[in-house]
Design a protein that fits this description.
Layout: E1 3-7, H1 11-23, E2 27-31, H2 34-43, E3 48-51, E4 54-55, E5 58-59, H3 60-70, E6 75-79, H4 84-92, E7 97-100, H5 105-117, E8 131-133, E9 137-140, E10 145-148, E11 151-152, H6 157-167, E12 173-175, H7 176-185, H8 193-207, E13 215-218, E14 222-225
Parallel strand pairs: 1-2, 1-3, 3-6, 6-7
Antiparallel strand pairs: 4-5, 8-9, 9-10, 10-11, 12-14, 13-14
Length: about 230
Amino acid sequence: MQKILIVEDDHELSGAICYALEKQEYLAEAAFTIREAQEIFEKEPILLALLDVNLPDGEGFELCRWIKAQREVPVLFLTARDLEEDVLSGYDMGADDYVTKPFSMKILLRKIEVILKRVPQGKPETHIRRIFEDGFLSIDLDNAKVRTNGTDCCVTPTELRLLKEFILNQGRLLTYNILLEHLWENGGQFVDKHALAVNINRLRGKIEDEEHKYISNVYGMGYQWIG
């Protein structure tokens, strides 16, 4: 069955959309924050994403950009923000359509049907392209390859796990607790903030120079990828 991701922080509206989709024999996955949406997207074969713009931890525009960087999945914005510049921003991010609230559920379902008809049939692509490239730093997470200024950079498994967290959460503040929790789940051996800081400083020494800065320390809170 076709699986659709609904990212809407209004729980009542999210439930209504999920119900309408399931009546049409779609599979609906609900998320209420960008982080929840990213976690679902990484694990599930999503065929279409339905995004609100105003979300508790950021804007749907950011999430749309992130989704398109992972794999080519249609995105439909559903939001109360109906200013011309907002609509144009949505299309600039790669959105396939933009629906403003209030809306007709029948029209929404028809738009979804039309969009999905353009999606190639068969097993959806589940591989996520996890690559960062800016001309100086090149990171290929899937092949565990890091290059700086055209030269191979030797990173440890722990440093690669750190890079994965930063690349998949570009621009977002990752608190100490979030990093420690995620790294532990993925095989990391951190036990405290000091060990985390040591590993991040070592990583920064390998991938940064005076002109290229990628990891910012948000004092007392955590770290953020700013590349």
